[in-house]
């Protein structure tokens, strides 16, 4: 989308945000909802200002509820966003399930039995399709970007403005997952090469790795480190051996926290790297891998939360801007499957979605022991 187009659209929605639009489908409402500008161009924070003004409030409320039920969910939603963007751009491709002859990204080695949070995304999508003025207008890729930001903020990290207007992919690539996502066993040379191949630099590598300040990792991803690496605190390694036995056939799915404050978005991750207590080999390489600039950044962030937050926000917004490999896209009715048939007009959008078959739609769980949370004001990220 050209800059002038974005400017015109923003001015248009700002004007109409001051107009009372009837809840019934009047002609103005019909015309606007069927002529929403193409969302495959430049992103803007105002894309849904008219078509779905409650999008950010709705996503945050559901993410808050999910994290209250299971604090680990924040890390899972952030990881979904990274695994989406790092494989052929931010297009919701990692949400597509295997169906018929189609093999998506979820069964690739880095994602299999590892990506989580699909039920939360499905719950968000279903509610947005119901509450948005224009029905099915919020893309699944945008949901991931917003949910990642909210997860970071709810767990104590910075708040930042999310740019929206992405389209959802029509396909996914099993092979590209394996070739694009960095491995937990990578050395520094491979890590920086991976980031550079996506147009990112050393600072991006170090600061985006700081997302590992929240979440867990499975034994299979750190077994080799605790039994074979030399740059590891011996007491730290011994403690991990109780949950991750040397026998590769045992305990592969046991988990350990990526840092000591696994549900708080803080700088403990970096401090532990300086103490040779990084859980993953790839994490410890940022400090011990032989690159002094990287090690200096780790030290800086371990002591300066404000610097970490500032640089992290810049890099994650940059990541969220990674364009899809294909210019074709749609707004899926159900994040787990492509619309069939794909709407031929209206920029790949359909504002009216049929109820999906139960086997293709997981509305998520809402345990009775998890009461609804009041909507809270966002932490604006002042260190």
Written account of the structure:
The chain is built from 15 helices and 2 strands. The chain is mainly α and 383 residues long. It has 2 domains: 135 residues, Orthogonal Bundle (Peroxidase, domain 1), CATH 1.10.520.10; 135 residues, Peroxidase, domain 2. Strands 1-2 form a two-stranded antiparallel sheet. Helix 9 packs across helix 14 and helix 9 crosses helix 15. The N terminus and C terminus are likely disordered.
SSE layout and pairing:
Layout: H1 3-16, H2 27-33, H3 55-69, H4 73-85, H5 118-131, H6 140-154, H7 174-180, H8 188-197, H9 202-209, E1 216-218, H10 219-228, H11 234-241, E2 255-257, H12 268-274, H13 281-288, H14 292-303, H15 305-320
Antiparallel strand pairs: 1-2
End-to-end separation: 35 Å
Global outline:
globular
Low-pLDDT runs: 1-28, 343-347, 356-369, 371-383
Q: How much helix is in the residues? A: 40-55%
- Beta content comes to under 5%
Reading off the top of the CATH hierarchy, the class of the largest domain is best stated as Mainly Alpha
Helix/strand structural class: mainly alpha
Sequence of secondary-structure elements: HHHHHHHHHEHHEHHHH
What is the CATH architecture assignment of the largest domain? Orthogonal Bundle
């Amino acid at each position: 989308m050209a800059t002038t187009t974005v400017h015109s659209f923003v001015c248009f929605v700002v004007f109409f945000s001051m107009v009372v639009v009837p809840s019934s489908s009047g002609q103005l409402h019909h015309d606007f909802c069927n002529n929403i500008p193409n969302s495959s161009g430049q992103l803007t924070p105002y894309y849904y200002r008219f078509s779905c003004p409650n999008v950010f409030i709705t996503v945050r409320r559901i993410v808050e509820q999910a994290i209250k039920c299971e604090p680990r969910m924040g890390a899972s939603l952030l990881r979904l966003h990274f695994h989406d963007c790092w494989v052929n751009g931010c297009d919701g491709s990692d949400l597509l399930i295997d169906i018929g002859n189609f093999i998506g990204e979820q069964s690739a080695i880095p994602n299999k039995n590892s990506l989580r949070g699909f039920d939360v995304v499905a719950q968000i999508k279903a509610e947005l399709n119901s509450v948005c003025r224009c029905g099915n207008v919020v893309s699944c890729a945008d949901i991931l970007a917003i949910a990642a930001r909210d997860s970071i903020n709810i767990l104590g990290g910075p708040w930042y403005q999310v740019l929206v207007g992405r389209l959802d992919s029509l396909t996914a690539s099993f092979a590209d997952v394996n070739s694009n996502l960095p491995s937990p066993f990578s050395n520094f040379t491979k890590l920086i090469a991976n980031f550079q191949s996506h147009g990112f630099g050393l600072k991006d590598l170090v600061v985006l790795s700081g997302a590992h300040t929240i979440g867990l990792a499975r034994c299979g991803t750190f077994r080799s480190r605790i039994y074979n690496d030399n740059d590891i605190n011996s007491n730290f390694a011994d403690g991990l051996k109780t949950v991750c036995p040397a026998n590769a056939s045992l305990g592969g799915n046991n988990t350990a926290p990526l840092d000591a404050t696994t549900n708080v978005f803080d700088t403990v991750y970096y401090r532990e790297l300086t103490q040779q207590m990084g859980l993953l080999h790839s994490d410890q390489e940022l400090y011990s891998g032989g690159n002094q600039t990287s090690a200096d950044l780790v030290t800086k962030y371990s002591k300066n939360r404000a610097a970490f937050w500032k640089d992290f926000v810049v890099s994650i917004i940059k990541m969220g801007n990674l364009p899809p490999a294909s210019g074709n896209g749609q707004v899926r009715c159900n994040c787990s499957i492509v619309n069939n048939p794909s709407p031929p007009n209206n920029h790949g959008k359909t504002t009216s979605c049929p109820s999906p078959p139960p086997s293709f739609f997981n509305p998520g769980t809402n345990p009775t022991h998890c009461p609804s949370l009041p909507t809270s004001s966002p932490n604006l990220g002042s260190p």
